[in-house]
Amino acid sequence: MYVAVKGGERAIDNAHAWLAEERRGDAAVDELTLDQIREQLALTVARVMAEGSLYDPDLAALAIKQARGDLIEAVFLVRAYRTTLPRFGASEPVDTGEMACDRRISATFKDAPGGQVLGPTFDYTHRLLDFKLAADGEAPATPQGEAGDATAPHITAFLGDEGLIQDEPESDATPPDLTREPMELPADRPLRLQALTRADEGFLLGLAYSTQRGYARNHAFVGELRIGAVVVEMEIPELGFAIELGEITLTECETVNQFTGSKTEPPQFTRGYGLVFGQTERKAISMALVDRALRWKELGEDDQGAPAQDEEFVLMHADNIQATGFLEHIKLPHYVDFQSELELVRKLRRAAQRDETPPEEAAE
After folding, report:
1. Which of 70, 208, 293, 296 has the smallest number of Cβ neighbours within 10 A?
2. Average pLDDT over the chain, rounded to whole?
3. At what angle are helices 201-212 and 281-293 packed, to 10 degrees?
């Protein structure tokens, strides 16, 4: 913290008090409860959990309330709290094939094995303002016919049965943990995926869109998009078996990409992958597109110089907390730096003025 003038601490305390007053707003209006935020702003809560790397809807709701709806500030609060939590173990890999799907669609197979489940989505709404909501209108109708309690196999597995899609290598190696170790480049795919799932949704969306406009060889189909609950388990060494810790909601996307083959790989489909906390399908699709763009080297493709193919560009700029810290630090006092810059510019102007002054005027 910079305290540049006498009385700076008092000014900061006053700023905190004013912020609290502004956050509360008109005291005549009922205060938002955490339950309301968690239940009625669920997609916002999901984004804060995903970019904050902490699955806790109540804490995410608290951060949103405290941050006055500034999602990057809320993510910052969640990450800061996360660093205080003890680590007592690691869960088993979740099995998304056993996901109880609330939503499961495929853009590649009309009659997908297990069926298409449209689920809760804005995709088929008319994008018209519903003024009933402003008037505290009717309760929503009960959905008919679809349920989120059935599991379904991954659709890309059927392409794999025919050898039409690249096999994903399995490994028992423990992947690096981005939250405990600094980013090192070049990064392998597990580390890239960690960075992408924590990345700013808007930044990732822009990169994904760029690949669709031709700034990478990335003609993708959504092989499958699924949203639902998965069980989280943890093995207890003293017991010798895994126990169930609870359930979390995830969004998973697998894209299917055309691939004509290379010197090392035969013609086949390849995939991009996205996995994000909560119902966050825009982020999951964007993540899958960028993941596939970053795989150009391992697939033996040519580097087209596209932004989404540049690992350093993507991974070092995707984190909105790092970006915010560097961006907003220029609001802090830089009096000494600026005064030196100011004196330099004045000196250069005086020198330039002397050079432009005719000799006879200079003599006078």
Report:
1. 70
2. 87
3. 50
